[in-house]
Amino acid sequence: MHALSESIEQIARRFRIIGRDPRLLYALQVAVQVAPTDVPVLIVGESGVGKEVFAHIIHAYSPRREKHLLAINCGAIPEGTMDSELFGHEKGAFTSAIESRKGLFEAANGGTLFLDEIGEMPVGTQARLLRVLETGEYYRVGSSQVRKTDVRVVAATHRDLLELIREKRFREDLYYRLNTITISIPPLRERGEDILLLLDFFLDETSKKYRLPLVGLTPDAEDYLLEYHWPGNVRELKHFAERLLILHGGEKVDAAMLEKLLPPRSARLPVLYQPAEGGSSASLPPPDDKGQLMLLYHRMGRIEEELLRLREMVQLLGQRLATASPALPAPSAPAESPNAPSDLSIENAEKRLIVEALKRFQGNRKKAAQALGISERTLYRKIELYGLHHL
Fold this sequence. Notes:
The chain contains 16 helices and eleven strands. The protein is of the alpha/beta class. It folds into three domains: 184 residues, Rossmann fold (3-Layer(aba) Sandwich), CATH 3.40.50.300; 95 residues, Helicase, Ruva Protein, domain 3; 98 residues, no CATH class. A five-stranded parallel β-sheet has the order 2-3-6-1-7. A hairpin with a 6-residue loop joins strand 10 and strand 11. Helix 2 runs parallel beside helix 3, helix 14 crosses helix 15 and helix 15 packs across helix 16. The radius of gyration is 27 Å and the shape is elongated. The protein starts with 7 loop residues before the first helix and ends in a 5-residue tail after the last helix. About 13% of the residues have low confidence.
């Protein structure tokens, strides 16, 4: 298996990495380039983005691929047993040590050790890990015998390690030892159309697994999914695809139906929403007065953010149209009239820009969408919304 004989796209398919986001593909390229070396690698990214997949890629394209790749989640191991898990222990080293036991550094000798959520590792264990990285030497718990190991370490975290250093919860020297090569994986919400590509992949996979008919998505449903925050990233999307297919297999799904399957955009964590009794709209247990007030404040803040974003978008669209075709006149500014306040609305400004773009490119919607900086799908939806089929 040689990375040089495969393209990045082929490697992505082999490891089930779906998407065209440039940052994702760059992260994959870095993983392949660093794989033949023995330098430590630090993979950073939010929970659920697929950090462990990149550890498998690094191992698969390294000279160590015939040996073991072992993984440990540092956040799932009690602090008192972390040293034993990594370095092993001798019989009688502690109360429950009824026999000697190898640690991961010994079991993975010659291979790769993936330390997931390394930001949760106890500070004392960090010091011993640093020694292994620098000298390859370690001690089993309860032993004074020096042991040697030859292990390539790949670490991952969703935490800000520099912040943990400031809080004295992570060793600065260990950070710089691990940080030789850093691979940053973008969150799903920043990957645009990759969301729909991944959803299609998971729907197809789930359909074959459970023999369920596929679902169709309306344009407004696709827009809803593209605008959703996806706090659980790819992991959340996979579970959502299973839920969607089980509940709505064979149906045409719109945004209103998705609202019952996903938490509101303001929510950070997925929760279960049930239809209100006797109705079809999603409902939550009524919060207390203080909770209602905080919820209203939060929603008002979200509305204000959206309005600011829309104003910036309108200004940006105007600038793009003005430079899209220098040979043609820029869109005319709306007449300032105190008797026509509706001309100043965001909706009318957006409609005028779309009309101008369609006229400028003689109805070519692909070129108009590119000039406006939006997807063709969004442009088609806006045309439907504003009744611009005649253009």
